[in-house]
Amino acid sequence: MQNSQDLINNKLILGVDPGIRNTGWGIVSYNNHKIDHIAHGSISPPNKNSDSERLNFIARELNEIIKSFNPSFAAIEKIFVNVNSNSILQLGMARGVAMQVIESANLPITELAARLVKKSITGSGSADKSQVKFMIERLLKTSIKGYDASDALAVSITGLNFSYKGNIPAGKVSFSKLDQAIERALIQGN
Question: Among all residues, which ones are annotated catalytic?
Answer without folding.
Answer: 17, 77, 148
